[in-house]
Design brief:
By secondary structure, the chain is mostly helical. Helices cover about 80% and strands about 0% of the residues.
């Protein structure tokens, strides 16, 4: 049963990350014509476009994508509860959905930072994935660089942000216990 739990959880988590990435790309006004942006838009448009007819954007944010992310998180929790015979509990589903959404958003940011760091070591010239990751993470790294400037050509801002993310994830795990 652990393998089925893992597979169902991964399928929901991967789609949730793509939906969150769509929201994040639009929030930072990343390059829409980038191949990664095009993939994200095409992978989520079947679900986001109908929601957009009902839920308008607000202050430049794609609220329909955010609502879809909540729906996917709640669907994941509900599916896992029903599949493994624990029954459906409104409070458990709502809290589990919110914590799932927050956890996956932190995981997405963590992996984008890790991939950006690795690409910065091996990239030779322009890389469209590196460019989009730069657009996504630069608004969070810039304030850190004001406090901790690059030391001897080594930028520690990504490391500081990753440590902060890990702290938030541990804090979230402590709150859910």
């Amino acid at each position: 049963m652990n393998s089925v739990h893992f597979l169902v959880g991964i399928l929901f988590d991967l789609f949730l990350m793509v939906v969150l990435l769509r929201f994040w790309l639009q929030a930072v006004r990343a390059d829409f014509y980038n191949p990664l942006s095009q993939f994200v838009v095409k992978a989520t448009s079947f679900a986001v476009n109908p929601l957009r007819k009902v839920i308008p954007g607000f202050a430049g944010l794609d609220i329909a994508s955010l609502v879809l992310a909540f729906i996917v998180a709640f669907a994941k929790v509900t599916t896992l509860l029903l599949m493994f015979g624990e029954g459906w509990n409104t409070t458990l589903v709502l809290m589990g959905g919110v914590f799932t959404l927050i956890r996956e958003a932190l995981q997405l940011l963590f992996w984008v930072l890790i991939i950006r760091a690795i690409l910065s070591w091996v990239s030779q010239g322009y890389n469209p994935i590196e460019a989009i990751f730069h657009q996504l993470t630069e608004p969070m790294l810039r304030p850190i660089r004001k406090v901790i400037p690059p030391i001897g050509g080594l930028d520690l801002s990504i490391l500081v942000l990753i440590i902060g993310l890990q702290f938030l994830q541990f804090l979230l795990m402590d709150l859910t216990r």
